[in-house]
Amino acid sequence: MGLKRKDLLSLTNLSAADIALILDTADSFKEVSGREIKKVPALRGKTVVNLFFEPSTRTRTSFELAAKRLSADVINFSPSSSSVVKGETLLDTARNIEAMQADIIVLRHSSAGAAETLARGVKSSVINAGDGWHEHPTQALLDLYTIRSRGMGFSGLKVAIVGDVAHSRVARSNIFALTKLGAEVRLVGPPTMIPLHIDQLGAQVYYNLDEGLRGVHVIMMLRLQLERQGRALFPTIREYARQYGLTNERVKLAEPGAIVMHPGPINRGVEIAPDVADSLSSVILDQVANGVAVRMGILYLMSGANA
Amino acid sequence: MDAGDIARAVTRIAHEILERNKGINDLALVGIRTGGVHLAHRLVRRIHDIEGTQIPIGELDITLYRDDLSLRKDQPILRTTSVPFKISDLKVVLVDDVLFTGRTIRAAMDGLIDLGRPAEIQLAVLVDRGHRQLPIKANYIGKNIPTSRDEAIEVHLEENGEEDRVVILRA
Amino acid sequence: MMILIKGGHVIDPGRVNGVADVLIENGKIAAVGQGLAAPAGATVLPAGGRLVLPGFVDLHVHFREPGFEYKETIQSGTEAAVAGGFTTVCAMPNTNPVNDNQAVTEFMLERAKAAGTANLYPIGAITKRSEGKELAEIGDLRRAGCVAISDDGKPVMNSLVMRRAMEYARAFDVPVVDHCEDLHLSEGGCMNEGVISTELGLPGIPSAAEDVMVARNVSLAELTGARLHLAHISTAGSVRMVREAKARGLKVTAEACPHHFTLTEETTRGYNTHAKMNPPLRTSQDVQAIKDGLRDGTIDVIATDHAPHASQEKQQEFTEAPFGIVGLETALPLTLALVEEGVLTLESAIDKLATAPAKAFSLNAGTLAVGAPADVAIVDPHLEWEVDPSRFRSKSRNTPFAGWKVKGRVTTTIVSGRVVYELDRPGRPA
Questions:
Q1: What are phi and psi of A56, to 5 degrees?
Q2: Is the dihedral of CA B140, B142, B146, B147 positive or negative?
Q3: N or C: fewer beta carbons within 10 Å in chain B?
C-alpha cells in the first residue's frame, strides 16, 4: 500500500510496483482533470513549495497546477543565483522554507544531486523536478504514462532515445525506469553525446539513427541544446540535423504505429523535421496534459509520508 | 442477513426509490466504491425489471474527499471515479453498503457536488449500524442492525466471488 | 634536554629494524642501540610494544595561511601534523597571496616557527600568481627556504612555460612538482568519469586528463634533465608511465595519497562531498595499480594532500563544493592497513611516509641516523580507534573516513628533541 518514502529523488530506487502505483494513481487524476470543477480537496491545508533555482516555466506551471487542483497552498520560490553567491547555501534556503511549514518541496536545480543533498537536510518531502544532468523523474513518469495510455505494455517494448543523452536528465530517468519495466532501451546519438559506460546501465548504444530506429515502438527525441555546438559536441546544426534529425522517412523505419515523443520545446528543423513535428503535436500535448495528472498523483502519494 | 434477505431488501429499496421519486424521470444512481457500486448495479437491474428502462449509473471514489487524509501516514490507493453523465438537475441516489459514522457519505456528497449540482441527493444503504458522528440519515435502508462500536460489519457479495451475506464480527 | 626512548621497535628504513633504544640529546639523535643507559637528567619514555619511527614527512599539505585562515592556519595545521606523526610538512603555495615571492615564504616560515610544532617547508609557485604565464622568482624562493616549486591545483597548461620552469629550476637543483591535470579535458568535472558519473549525472574528469599531463611532464623532464615530482597520482596510466620513466633512469619521483589507495569512486555515491577531491577517487583497477606501484617502488612517497575546507563549503551541492579532504590525522592507519593487507612491508611503509619523501625534496629529515634532527613518532600499531572528525586538531573536518574503525595510532611525537604531542594529553603545547 502506498509509496513508502519521504522523497522522490530518482527512479533508480522505485520498484516496478511503485511505478505502476504512480501510473494507476495518475489515472484517477486524469479523470479529475477532465471535470468541469477540476479540483479535489485531498491536499487541503498542505503547503507545496516550488523551489526553482533554474528557470523552467513548463515544469513549474505543471507542478503548480497539480498542487492547486489538489487544493494545496502553493508558493513559488525562485531564488536568484545572486543570493546563493551571497553565501546562502541550498540547505540554508531550504531550512528557511521548511520553517514556513512546507510539507513538500519541489526542487529544480542545475546541480546533479541537489535534490538528494536537500532531502538529507530537511524533514519536508522533496520531489526532484530536475537536477543537473542527473534525473527528472516526473518527466519520465509522464512519458511512461503517455506510452501506457496509448495501449502499449512495457515488457519487450523497444524505445529509442535520440540525441544528447550525456547531458539529459530526462534520458537518464527514462533509461532507469524503462529498463526496470522490461523495455529494450536504445540510445542513439553521436559518441560525443553518449556518456561512457552507459551500456552498463542496461541500454544499447547506436551511433547510426537509421539502425537505432529500426523496429522500435517509441521514439523519444531529446531537445538539442544549441549552445553546445561551441563545445565541440557536434560540428554544425546542419550536420546534426542531417545525421540525427527525425524525418518522416526515418519514422517509417520504426514499427508501424510507433509514437514519437519529445519533452518540448522542439527545435523544429533540428532534431525533428517540421512535417514530423506537425504530425506528432497531439502526443506532445498529451504529454503536457498527462504531466499534470502524473504530478497530482505523485503529490498525493507523497503527501501522506510525513504525517 | 443471508442471500435471500439481501435480495428482498434490494427489491424493496428499488420499489421505494420508484415510489418516492414517482418513477424514473431524472433519476440516477451513484455507487460508492467499492461495496456500494455492486449494490447500485443490483438496484439498477431491479428497477429495469420493474420499469423496463435502464437508468444512468455512476461509480464514485471518495478517497480524495476523506476527512482523515491529512492525518494518514500512508495514502490509500485511489480508484477511478466514473460518472459518465451530467448530474446537474438529476435526482441522484447515493448507494453504499453500510452506513456507520456518516463520514463516508459526507465525503461522497462533497465529491458528487464537485461533479455538478444535482437537484436532490438521496441515500440508499443495505445496512444501517448506527453510531452516527454527523447529522446524516438514509432515505432507504435494507436493514437496521444495532451494533456496538467495537464490532465490525462485513458485507460479502457474489460480485466479489463470495456468497451473499452480512456478518457481524465481534471484537 | 635529554630523552631516552626505551625498548621500542625501532624502524629507520634501510638502517635499523628491531628492538632498540633511542637517545636524544640537544635536539639530535645521539645514539640508537640496545641497552642504552639513561644519562643523568634524561626523561625516559618506555616504548615497549610500540614502534619508534622517524617523524613522517608530508610533501603535500595545504595550510591555507595566508588568506584562508578560516579553513586552517599554520598553527592548527602543524598541530594536526604532529597528531598524525608528521614532523615535517611541505606547504603548497596556493594561498592568498600566492607564495610566489620571498615575503610570503618568510611569513610562512615565521608562522611555523611561532607555532613551534612541526617543521614547515614552503613550496614556492612555479609561475607568478600561479597563472601559468611568467616564471616566479624561483631563485629567491629557493634562497628564502622553499624546497620545491609547484603551481599545485592550477597545473601549468602551457608546455613551453613548463619546459622553461624545469630548465630554470635546474640552476637551483629544486624539484618541480606538478599536479597533473589537463584542464581542458577535466573542465567542469567533479568526479571520476565512468559508469558512476554517468549514473549520477555528474560531469566527469577522465583519467586521461591526468595521464596526458604525466606523459608531457615525463617528456619534458627527459628533455630538460629536471627533477620532476608527480603529485598525487591516481590512475593506472600514471603508474605505468612513471614505472617506465624510472626504468629509463629519469629523475622522476611520485607520490600517492591514502584516499587514492583506500577508496574508489563508489564512495561518491549519495553525492558525498567528502569524497570530492582532485584528482578524484578512481576505479578499483586504478586503486590496484596504485598499490602495485607502491609495492614495486614506482611510487616513492605517500603524501596526504591535506586540503582543509570549512563545513559550510562542503555542505554545498556536489558540483559546487570545493575539492579536497584533510588527511594528516588519518594517513598512518590507512598506510598501516596496506601493511596488514600485504601490499607493503612495515619498513617500506615507513620509508614512504618518512625517508623517501625527505630524500625526494633533499630534506634533513626522515631518519634516525646519529646526528639527524630528533624528529620521532612513537606509534602503537595495535591501538584500534574510531575516526572522529570533531576531535581533529585540524580546523576542518572534511574527511570521508569519519566513523571508520582503524588501527594504529601515534602516541608521542617529538620534534627537534621536544615532545610536541602526546595522545593521552591532548592539551595544546605552550
A1: -160, 90
A2: negative
A3: C
Q: Is C286 a catalytic residue?
A: no
* The one catalytic residue among C12, C178, C300, C305: C305
Question: Across the beta sheet with A184-188, what order do the strands follow?
Answer: A204-206, A184-188, A158-162, A218-221, A259-261
Give me the helix-helix angle, A169-180 and A137-149, nearest 10°: 50
H/E stretch holding C208: helix C207-224
First to last CA, chain C: 17
Neighbours of chain C (3+ CB pairs under 8 A): A
Residues of chain A neighbouring C270 (CB-CB closer than 8 A): 116
3-state secondary structure of A246: strand
| Cα-trace Rg, chain A | 19
Give A84 or B21, the one with higher predicted confidence. B21
Q: What is the DSSP letter of A15?
A: -
Q: Which of A4, A21, A25 to mutate to test the interface with B (most CBs of B within 10 A)?
A: A25
Helices marked H in chain A: 16-33, 57-69, 81-85, 90-99, 114-121, 137-149, 169-180, 209-213, 237-244, 248-251, 274-279, 281-302
* C-A interface (Cβ pairs under 8 Å ≥ 3): yes
Q: Give residues with Cβ within 8 angstroms of C328, minimum separation 6.
A: C58, C61, C77, C80, C81, C83, C84, C86, C89, C304, C306, C394
* Amino acid at site A264: G
Question: Would you say the C-alpha torsion C210, C213, C219, C222 has a positive or negative sign?
Answer: negative
> Could you tell me how far CA A203 lies from the centroid of its own chain?
18
Flag whether pLDDT at C426 surpasses 70.
no
For C69-120, write each residue's pLDDT tens digit: 999 999 999 999 999 999 999 999 999 999 999 999 999 999 999 999 999 9
Interface of B with A in 52-81 (CB under 8 A): 61, 63-65, 69-81
- Alpha-carbon span A166 to A171, nearest angstrom: 8
Give the three-state DSSP class for C413.
Answer: strand
Q: How confident is the model at residue A189 (pLDDT cuts 50, 70, 90)?
A: very high
- Whether the predicted pLDDT of C425 surpasses 60: no
Query: How much is the pTM?
Result: 0.89
Q: The C-alpha cell of A160 is what? A: 529509442
Q: What is the pLDDT of residue A4?
A: 75
* pLDDT at residue A307 greater than cutoff 90: no
Residues of A in Cβ contact (< 8 Å) with B115: 35-37
